[in-house]
Amino acid sequence: MIRSISESPLYPIVNPKSIAFFGASNTFMRMGSIMLSSMQALGYEGKIIPIHPKEKVVRGLAAYPSILDVPEIPDLAIIVLPTEIVCQTLDDCGKKGIRHAIVVSGGFREAGPEGAALQKELEAIARRHGIRFLGPNCLGVANLHLKLNPTPIKADCKAGFVGLASQSGSFITQMFNYLHRHGMGFSAALSVGNEASIDIVDCLEYLGACPHTKVITLYIEGINRGSKFVEIAKAITPRKPIVALYVGGSEAGKQAGLSHTGSLSGPNEIYDGIFKQCGIIRAKTLTELFDYALALGTLPRPGGNRIVIQTHSGGPGATAADACSRVGLKLSRLSPETVKKLKPLIPKTASTANPVDMTFSKNHADDYFNIPNILLSDSETDMLLAYFVSPGIFLERILGEMGVEENSINSEMDKLIGDFAQKFVSLTQAHPDKPIVGFTYRSLQEKMVRTLLDCGVPVYQDPERAARSLAAVQEYYERRGKM
Amino acid sequence: MIRSISESPLYPIVNPKSIAFFGASNTFMRMGSIMLSSMQALGYEGKIIPIHPKEKVVRGLAAYPSILDVPEIPDLAIIVLPTEIVCQTLDDCGKKGIRHAIVVSGGFREAGPEGAALQKELEAIARRHGIRFLGPNCLGVANLHLKLNPTPIKADCKAGFVGLASQSGSFITQMFNYLHRHGMGFSAALSVGNEASIDIVDCLEYLGACPHTKVITLYIEGINRGSKFVEIAKAITPRKPIVALYVGGSEAGKQAGLSHTGSLSGPNEIYDGIFKQCGIIRAKTLTELFDYALALGTLPRPGGNRIVIQTHSGGPGATAADACSRVGLKLSRLSPETVKKLKPLIPKTASTANPVDMTFSKNHADDYFNIPNILLSDSETDMLLAYFVSPGIFLERILGEMGVEENSINSEMDKLIGDFAQKFVSLTQAHPDKPIVGFTYRSLQEKMVRTLLDCGVPVYQDPERAARSLAAVQEYYERRGKM
Predict the structure, then answer these.
(1) Residue B387 near residue B312 (C-beta atoms within 8 A)
(2) CB–CB of B229/B201 below 8 Å?
(3) What ipTM, to 2 d.p.?
(4) Which domains does chain B have, with CATH numbers?
(5) A contacts of B314 (beta carbons < 8 Å)
(6) pTM
(7) Beta-carbon separation of B398 and A29 below 8 A
């Protein structure tokens, strides 16, 4: 286990100050050109040195015909070239003194026996020069804290707390927007490809040491260094949660993984055992992977499994209650004092049983602080799940009826809703040891919920997803307690 | 079982030509006023007659102090009044000759013994006058084909093919926007409340006969007329699918339902048995309820369970393969002819195993017709699951690089993406007997996927949801085959 992040072979790959870029040109419709343009678009502040046999300037950057002509030694080489010339290029990099690389090019082990032989050759070259590299057949890294995104897809998201190590490149790039929509961002995302030199275990170790990473997510098709994985994971989970999606357990997933990265998979049961032993939470789908990451990255350790549900509608309340009980959460019993404090705030047809159904509430503002504050103050309750309808759908009409001019309704609404959201967010400071989670059937991008997400309050699109995520948090701390 | 929809007691409630409305006034912040304003906003074309003790004009409509003063006999009374005066009002309606009502007001059986007694009185009044009514404690109906929405929430959706009968009012109103975002709309949505006169079984029967309804969804906290439910459901499922979400099976769900509508629930196993017997597909969450409805309402009967997965990325492909195999779908084996036809269209590093991973495709347009058309033409394949990245994220950059002016990039992109989407939609005509489904991790509202949804091609936000929905379609036709 590394003692400091700078000991990781990944450190210069994730945090390079200068990059030699092979495979970009002024012809845009090439993978390399697209990747370079992403890097420029996000505003990477380090130095980029394109290498191109003919072009002297590539996308506005001074280019060199060969790496051997470059006056300095770049921290990192990114290689996006045709398979045939990758080995020669890496050899040149080695001769130049470069010790870290990302090999994006495919056509190696995943492509059959000929490709496997070529990969062996690549590995030998790297060993000879002491080069550590990601890939081949990968999409490299994204380090949003450094504005580094040499992947084909624009990073339309902020830097955040989710670390990802993935045996699929697309789960790096295609998740930028997904994470943003769901209230998260990557700290660092690492695509390992065929793992010829650096594998997912190295990535796990790096993310364990990465200070920006609050929760580690793994996409796994098969782990080769099993015992090292267990050792590293065991060292991490007592201080940082790990969530893993493993797809190699089914025959179909195994076949798909084999033609994808040529990795070795094993039966679901074996991986279940490994994960349990290490304190890793297993996700069955990508949705679960990031749902759990959101909860684990934002919520405090719950004191127990007793939950109170707050709703304005019976159906969502009952559905949430059903979902909670299916994952082992227990509906808390409200104390008589709590019920007494609630009564003046809600209509007499409302329910003060749990789920607390406020129905048509007397004062909109109470929903977002006073009522949940009473519920969270009850010592019989460990966590809160609140249902959110968009207050906008009512407010828009109310403001219109009140005679507010049409062109100022939106700004008035935004202000009101922003205030409501901030009130709700302040509950997390008032009750720092109780997880607070929301669910809604509206779009997550509407003002109220978007504000909550931006302020670190998880809101899910189904009570089931919220309940499972809370259960994942419970499970993480339970396993951690036993380690 | 009714022979024609007009025999249903619900017919005049869902399709009224004139409505007496009790409880709306010129004070907007009242439930009744908000409900009337929704009805006006959607543009209901029938006649609305507000009844108000003092106001002569309510929201621009001529009002009467008592129903007895109204010159005509309205088809329907909607009552949104304080609990205390509901019985008297229904009695007046009966005297006037009105035979159908929606009682929105709460405070009856769900509110304890006193409320239960009041409900008995209400029932007796209705019986005496021969009145059939929805409620009390409900949100009534929405019939978007008639622009009828007397619920508190604006109907921001189109009329569609999903019929809903719900023991929760919020699942009517709060799903307008949800259904629209996911590519659906209600044909008719019915909130039954305490089911004093008309119950969920009557609603099921109505929806079975409703020509706009292609798939029936049920939200159930407890069924009282069990054997009638079975009889009606059995008569419907051989020609129209029914999906049911039952939440009363867990202790928490049961308690929540009890304080919500006071309904009787039973163990999960009993409901599982009933549903199976009737050919009803059970959903565990609201997300599943409408995911299945989308698939059942749009897809043809599959010839078998052999699926082909098309992707541009290994990870989403492997995840989809894993999800399919978990729900019992079988990855089809591509014939040598199919592989031969594919080869010229995809790069040599691409995979022609199943999942078919096109990687970085040679010609964008092939992804949306030529490649899936080859896959669907294989006689060893019964259905297609395709992964969609937003082509916009590439196209925007490509068009920019090509020198297209910034202010015309969006319209150019929209046109291109619209064409791609239409090509993909045309596969459903080319292969009318093979289900075609998509999944994406992007927002459903981006042009490509939104167009597919608008044209009746289901696209889900996770391969798991797509796979489960396909399995639900399989299961429906299997059960139907055995009935």
Answers:
(1) yes
(2) yes
(3) 0.93
(4) 5-134 (3.40.50.720), 141-298 (3.40.50.261), 306-482 (3.40.50.261)
(5) 168-170, 256-257, 259-261
(6) 0.94
(7) yes
